Amino acid sequence: MNNRAYQEQWLAYMSEYVTDNKKQLFEKVLSTRTRYLTVVLEDLFKAHNASAVMRTAEGLGIQDIHVVEQRNAYDYNPYVLRGAGKWLTLHKYNQTEQNMRVCFDQLKSQGYQILATSPHEYAKDYREFDIKQKTAVVFGAEETGISDFVKENADGFVQIPMYGFTESFNISVSAAIVLEDFSRQIRDDREIALSPDEIFELKLEWYQKMVPNVEVHQRAFDKKINEEEKNL
C-alpha cells in the first residue's frame, strides 16, 4: 500500500471517532483557509504578544506562521492563545546565524512579496496597499522593531497612522489592524483557497488532534492493515 492510500484509510478510520458537528466545522474552516497571506514574527520575546498575533491570524483564516528566533526564543501564552495554535502550521527558523535570511529565501521561493511593519516615515499607510499577490507581513521585536536585514530586504513597508503622542500600537493590535484589512482584500476577488492536497493534509493532522487516545487507535489500525495485507 502506498503512503497516500494508507493516509486515506487512516483518515476514514479516524472519522468514525469524530462527531458530525466537528466534521462539518472542519469542512467549513478548511474551505476558507488560506496561505495567500502569511505572518512572520521576528524575535518576539513576550509570549502574550506572539500568542495574540497567532490567535488573530487563526481567526482570520491564515494558516501559516513563520517564527524567526535570532536573539529571542519563541514562547507562547496558553491563556492568550486559547487553543488557536493547534490549528496553525508553525514554521520556526532558529538553526543558523542568519535565520531571517533563511526565512526570506523560503518565502521568496514560494512567490511571496514581503511587507514589513514600521512606524517610520519611509513606510506607507497600510490602507494604500493593494494586495494582488501572495504576501508575507513581518512584525518585528517589541522594543527594537524590524531588524536591519528586514529594512534592507523587504519589498515594502507598512505603517498604521497614529494621531496621539504614542509612536505605535502594541504589536498584537498592529497585527489585528493590518491583517484584517489585508485578509478582507484578498477575500474579495482573489483565488486564495488551499489545494485539495493541502486540505487533505490538514484534515489528516486535525483529525489526529481530535481523536482521543489516537496513538492507541493508530496501533489498532496498523495491526488491521498488516493482517489484511498478509491475507492478500
The main sheet orders its strands as 3-2-1-6-4-7-5
**What are the segments in which pLDDT stays under 50 over at least 5 consecutive residues?**
none
Radius of gyration, whole Å: 20 Å
**Spatial gap, N to C terminus:** 12 Å
What is the general shape?
elongated
**What series of H and E elements makes up the topology?**
HHEHEHEHEEEHEHHH
What oligomeric state do the depicted chains represent?
single chain
Number of helical segments with 4 or more residues: 9
Q: Average pLDDT across residues?
A: 92
Plain-language structure description:
The chain is an alpha/beta fold and 232 residues long. It is 48% helix and 14% strand. It has 9 helices and 7 strands. It has helices at 3-15, 20-32, 47-59, 78-81, 99-109, 148-153, 171-189, 196-210, 214-230, and strands at 37-42, 64-68, 89-93, 113-117, 124-125, 135-139, 156-159. Strands 3-2-1-6-4-7-5 form a 7-stranded parallel sheet, with helices on both faces. Strand 2, helix 4 and strand 3 form a beta-alpha-beta unit. Helix 1 packs across helix 8 (196-210). The longest helix is centred in the C-terminal third of the chain and has 19 residues, at 171-189.
